[in-house]
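Minutes, project check-in
Item: structure for the 545-residue chain
Input as provided by the requester:
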Amino acid sequence: MVQQYGQPIFILPEGAFRTTGRDAQRNNILAAKQVADTVRTTLGPKGMDKMLVNDLGDIVITNDGATIVEELNVEHPAAKMMVEVAKTQDEEVGDGTTTAVVLAGELLANSERLLDQKIHPSVIARGYRMAAEKSNEILNQMGKNINLDDEKILQEIAITAITGKGAEISKEKLAGLSVKAVKQVAEKRDNKIVVDLDDIQVEKKAGGSTADSELIQGIIVDKERVHPGMPRKVNDAKIALLDTALELTKTETDAEIQITDPNQLQAFMAQEEKMLKEMVDTITKSGTNVVFCQKGIDDMAQHYLSKAGIFTVRRVKKSDMEKLAKATGATLVTNLKDLSSKDLGYAAEVEEEKISGDEMTFVRGCKNPKAVSLLVRGGTEHVVDEVERAVQDALGCVAAAIEVGKVVAGGGAPEIELAKRLREYAETVGGREQLAINAFAESVEVIPRTLAESAGMDIIDTLVELRAKHEKGNPDIGVLVLEGKIDDMWKKGVIEPLKIKTQAIKSASEAAEMILRIDDVIASKKGGGGRMPQMPGGEGMGDMD
């Protein structure tokens, strides 16, 4: 509303709600902090789990930051920006989502103190941007080089990622499987190692224990044979991948056939049968003994395939077909007439097995497969879901370490060292930005502070001791949570990929800067239905579509 010559002029529709200036900033910061506080207790090996129940009563039990913020039905716009921070971290690295969200929340909490000192939000945002750029430079200097052959370090990275999750009881085994899987699919392109995690299929099945999880040097297809007369197991499998239906195609134009004699009908049916038999003969002549078909297979064709002793699976997903091609070396054939022995892939065995009451096809023993499968087991659905999340974190961390080629110690050690160097950098920067850089340094220390808290240690004493050790030139000293003391994290095997830290800093600082620069929140009502989300503290924001 503006007022001119005593006459109020309304520029927003009735029912719209607006908060401006300091109120808008305070509300946005409070909303973001609430999201950060929600996931903060899940950080580290002694992090607690959250039970999330949706409208339908479905339950998710996890301490995975990405899963928690994804399942949270947040309505506040600033809170949604925090959810985006977690999603970006999860997509880019696969782990470190809790770190990123907690860091963003702390950056905003510390910026509030600067706002109370009448420092302009643009100055704080500029200081944070300078600190984030410097952090990236410092972290790259701190990173230690590794390569694909450093299996012990890669194993420790995977164990660090799994520790604290529901799968911790079998962390050594799951870490070993994760490292093997990533190494198997890693490829060298233009002197760079690239890992496409889509080439690692994680299949979860309840039943058994976590220790029963296994790595398949090939692919698991969640399908069964099309005909019970086919062999259940094929050794020395020669595999054909067909992207064409083993059925008679219908004509594009409508046609009518008039039959006046039963012999003509018999001849017509015999011709159809002959065409289907020719299709199967083409497959047989190529030397194929296993067929994976992306489309449908006629009942008569199934009969002939069964008589020929060919193991056949139909309606296989396109993504599975692509993985099978990478694993077995087979070529995806779109025209059956072109099928030859050169198009066939190889696997030591193809077998149909019953897992947790479901028939699945296992393609094992492929020669140097560039796509593999991890079968994850667990006692119940909730357990196996959490084990799968832990394995995905481990795979993401190992892949990030290999691709970037640099790692750092865990346990809050890099954060303490980073905070120390940022304070030194702040001394060289003039103006009010120096205050923002110091606030950034203090915010980074939220990670070791939270780890010390979860370990039941005295937070102030721990931070003082950590800073003293780092001042003496021990950059790898961090919080050894499981033993409740500080120690050399590198020697203890607590190692994380550098990319977790750099991406968390980047995502958190950018989100904090964006939220800081908002000084006006306008929620307009476009007509009927819906409400603008509640502001923290129960303050409504009016109706909104």
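Outcome recorded: The first helix runs from residue 21 to 40.
No further action items on this chain.
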